[in-house]
C-alpha cells in the first residue's frame, strides 16, 4: 500500500480540509462518546489512593447535592453539607479518571443548559463567534465543563478567565481539569498553584480537588506503543478499511497538513474512520509540530479510534529535550494515549 494508491475504504487525511461553523462547534459541546455513560457509580476508585473517593464524594455533592438524610430520632439534625464554590478544579495526573468525573458531573447535574468541551474548543468558539456573542450564548447556563484547561497562551487564558467570571455572575457553575504527571512528587501542587495564579481574577471561585493515582491506561498494557512492519501495517489498515474506513498517510505529510487546519477542526479530520494509519513515524524536533500532533492525538483518543503505525514507536515521537521542557505534561499525556490507541 502506498500513499498514492488507496484501496476502497482508505482515505488520506491530507486530502481533507474540514470547515466547522460556530453553530457546529456549539452543537459538539458534549462529552466524548467514550464517556456517554459515565457516572459517579461507574468511576472505579483505587483504594490505594483515598483522594479518589474523597474527590468522588465532593463532586457528587457539587453536581447533585448530598444524598438522602438519615434521621436517627426526634432531635437528630440534618448533617451540614460542605460549602461548595461555584467552580471546581480537578488537579491530578493523567489517567486517574478526571475526565470520567467531569463527564459524571455533566450527566448528573440537573441543568437544562449545560456544556462540555476542551479548552481549545471554547477558545475556537470565541474566535468564530466573537467574545460578546459567546458570552451571550453561554450566559445563564447551569454548567460549563472545561477539559484540559491550558495555561500556555496568556492571551487565551485571559479571555477565558474574563468569560468565566461573567458566567459565574450569571449563575453558571464551572468544572475544569488539567494534567500533572502521575507520581511526580510536588508537581501536582504546583499545577494547582499555576492554575489559580493564571486565573487570579476569579481564583476564589474555584475549589481545588486533588486526585492522586496511577495511569489506568498503562495498568492493562504491556510495554510500549506497537510499531508494525510494512506488510502487517498494510494488512491491518486494509482490514480496518473493510470494517468501516481507515486513513493511511505518511507521517511527515500529516504533520505538514496539521499546520493548515485549525486544531478545533481536527475532530472532523477523523470523521467516519475506524482506524488512523501513519507510515514512517519518526521523532519530532520542532515544538510547534509536536504540539499540533498532541492536539490531534487528543481528538483521536476522544473518538477512541485505533492507531496503526510504522517506523519509530509512537510513544517515542517526542524528543528527550521536549520531555524535559515546559510542555512535558502535554507530551506525557499524549504518550499515554498513543500507547493505548496502538494496543486497541
TrEMBL record:
<dbReference type="Pfam" id="PF03969">
    <property type="entry name" value="AFG1_ATPase"/>
</dbReference>
<protein>
    <submittedName>
        <fullName>Cell division protein ZapE</fullName>
    </submittedName>
</protein>
<dbReference type="InterPro" id="IPR005654">
    <property type="entry name" value="ATPase_AFG1-like"/>
</dbReference>
<dbReference type="GO" id="GO:0016887">
    <property type="term" value="F:ATP hydrolysis activity"/>
</dbReference>
<keyword id="KW-0067">ATP-binding</keyword>
<keyword id="KW-0132">Cell division</keyword>
<keyword id="KW-0131">Cell cycle</keyword>
<dbReference type="InterPro" id="IPR027417">
    <property type="entry name" value="P-loop_NTPase"/>
</dbReference>
<dbReference type="GO" id="GO:0005737">
    <property type="term" value="C:cytoplasm"/>
</dbReference>
<dbReference type="GO" id="GO:0051301">
    <property type="term" value="P:cell division"/>
</dbReference>
<dbReference type="GO" id="GO:0005524">
    <property type="term" value="F:ATP binding"/>
</dbReference>
<keyword id="KW-0547">Nucleotide-binding</keyword>
